[in-house]
């Protein structure tokens, strides 16, 4: 599955890094790609990274994005189209700052774009915007989804038509500030700061048929080890940080996520969409740049991972999206992906 072309070969010759794949687009910086197949075509919903001059910090203030562009392509390796601005922060009534990693779902002729954004009090919540076209433009609802918080929504529709949203991220994503169920502005800037206690879990909520509200309580998408014990706060190689995704393979639910400060993509497998998920390993080694964020799709019988690195800019907040193959092994694992050598 390793793709090496003449450009990457010449990078090796010049002593530079060899990349498994090349940026899908270089006219704008893009990150956090959520890919979907709609009407036989691949649509990618990324963050749109920009230089806003804010110094890098642990809060992620340097990720100061202001709009979304949707990308599409007819096939893997085909021409990539940038459909222009699909949603602008100025058109979101509750907006404060920072449009982070979005995702999209489709139901009954409407596309729903879910996006994390800080409100005017600098608290992340998740908004929803709709369009009749997968490439937008999207129109935002006047308020965030009631009961939503933190970042990185990933939406998954199961075979029975039920749609679930996985969301959350620690550190700058503020998940740790919701540990008591309401926002604590003076809460920790990182995590629970309790190494021997269970780590914070990603959240999961079923969506109502209107796709704009949670149906019932927000639950933990719990990650446990093979003995049934929760992953602990100190276990930075395995605990959830941000960037979740769900895909179903051979009847099992594969919950995949970023471990953040250890820069790995990890996975855990469950029998139900809401978990619990048993930790199964890592499947992608660190990319260039601090963040690692992915999505997984199947098209024409093959599986692909969309991800980002910083090949074009060398800067953590100016990323570029990429795609490469992902392989499930016969014993139910995901084969390790090495983004660089
Ligand atoms: O793009 C901003 C944030 O960086 C995302 O929400 C995280 O997943 C990380 O990629």
Note the main sheet. Answer: 5 strands, mixed
Helical fraction? under 10%
Radius of gyration: 19 Å
First-residue to last-residue Cα separation: 14 Å
Beta content: 35-45%
Outline the structure in words.
With 341 residues, this protein is mainly β. The protein is 2% helix and 37% strand. It contains 1 helix and 20 strands. The chain has one helix at 6-13, and strands at residues 29-38, 41-49, 67-73, 81-88, 103-107, 110-118, 124-131, 139-140, 154-157, 163-167, 202-206, 219-221, 223-224, 242-249, 252-258, 265-270, 277-284, 295-299, 302-309, 320-326. The strands form 5 sheets. A 5-stranded mixed β-sheet has the order 13-17-16-15-14, with no helix packed on it. The protein has a 4-stranded antiparallel β-sheet with strand order 1-2-3-4, with no helix packed on it. Strand 9 and strand 10 form a beta hairpin. The radius of gyration is 19 Å and the shape is globular. It binds beta-L-arabinofuranose. Residues 31-32, 47, 63, 100-101, 151-152, 169, 242-243, 291, 293 line the site of beta-L-arabinofuranose. Belongs to the glycosyl hydrolase 43 family. Keywords: Carbohydrate metabolism, Glycosidase, Hydrolase, Polysaccharide degradation, Signal, Xylan degradation. It holds the Pfam family Glyco_hydro_43.
């Amino acid at each position: 599955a390793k793709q090496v072309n003449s450009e990457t070969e010449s990078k090796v010759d010049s002593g530079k890094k060899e990349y498994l794949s090349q940026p899908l687009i270089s006219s704008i910086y893009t990150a956090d790609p959520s890919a979907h197949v709609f009407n036989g075509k691949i649509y990618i919903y990324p963050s749109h990274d920009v230089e806003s001059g804010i110094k890098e910090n642990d809060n992620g203030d340097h990720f100061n994005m202001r709009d979304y562009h949707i990308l599409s392509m007819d096939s893997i390796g085909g021409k990539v189209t940038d459909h222009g601005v699909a949603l602008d922060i100025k058109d979101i009534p509750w907006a404060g700052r920072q449009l982070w990693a979005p995702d999209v779902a489709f139901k009954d002729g409407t596309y729903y774009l879910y996006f994390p954004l800080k409100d005017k009090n600098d608290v992340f919540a998740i908004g929803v915007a709709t369009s009749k076209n997968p490439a937008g433009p999207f129109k935002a609802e006047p308020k965030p989804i009631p009961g939503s918080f933190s970042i990185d929504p990933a939406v998954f529709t199961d075979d029975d038509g039920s749609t679930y949203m996985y969301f959350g991220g620690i550190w700058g994503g503020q998940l740790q500030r919701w540990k008591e169920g309401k926002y604590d502005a003076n809460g920790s800037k990182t995590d629970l700061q309790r190494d021997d206690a269970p780590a914070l879990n990603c959240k999961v909520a079923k969506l109502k048929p209107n796709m704009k509200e949670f149906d019932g309580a927000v639950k933990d998408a719990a990650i446990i080890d093979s003995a049934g014990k929760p992953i602990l706060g100190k276990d930075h190689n395995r605990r959830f940080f941000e960037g979740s995704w769900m895909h179903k393979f051979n009847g099992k639910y594969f919950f995949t996520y970023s471990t953040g400060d250890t820069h790995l993509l990890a996975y855990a497998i469950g029998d139900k969409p809401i978990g619990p998920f048993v930790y199964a390993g890592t499947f992608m080694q660190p990319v260039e740049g601090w963040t690692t964020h992915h999505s997984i799709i199947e098209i024409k019988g093959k599986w692909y991972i969309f991800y980002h690195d910083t090949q074009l800019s060398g800067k953590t907040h100016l990323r570029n999206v990429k795609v490469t193959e992902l392989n499930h092994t016969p014993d139910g694992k995901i084969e390790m992906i090495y983004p660089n050598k």
